[in-house]
Amino acid sequence: MVALARKPCPNIIAVDATTAAVSTILWATGYRPDYSWLDVPVFDRKGQIRHDGGIVDQPGLYLMGMQFLRRRKSALIDGAGDDARDLSDHLVSYLAG
After folding, report:
1. pLDDT of amino acid 4
2. How far is CA 29 from CA 7, 21, 74, 89, 95, in A?
3. Which of 81, 41, 87 shows the shortest CA–CA distance to 62?
4. Where are the alpha helices (DSSP H) in the chain?
């Protein structure tokens, strides 16, 4: 499910993860990072997520769209495809064991 809104929505949507067939969560926070919802030990001393090219040191957690993730254009729409290909290559080998 993808929701697009031009202004903040006052409604809260809840999903029961035990009965819903959710396999992916896409969280877009806007103009500046807000990781207050992320409760895993992956932050450096400056509050940034520790990662190597989008691969976070927490199994199953990956980043996309961050500044200089893998290349200079990573934060731009034009750079997302290259980063997604790189990360998908990693995921294929990771899932293959």
Report:
1. 42
2. 13, 23, 16, 26, 28
3. 87
4. 77-96
CA–CA distance, 71 with 97 (Å, rounded to integer): 27
Q: Which residue range is the domain that position 67 belongs to?
A: 1-97
Q: pLDDT 10s per residue in the chain (97 long)?
A: 344 444 455 555 666 767 766 677 666 656 677 788 888 999 999 998 898 988 898 888 888 877 778 888 777 777 778 888 888 888 888 888 7
Q: What angle do CA 63, 20, 13 make, to 5 degrees?
A: 75
In terms of C-beta distances under 8 Å and separation of at least 24 residues, what long-range contacts does 46-53 make, across chains too?
Answer: 53/86, 53/87
Only one residue has tokens 């807000």, namely 34
The total number of structural domains in the chain stands at 1
Structure tokens at 68: 């200089």
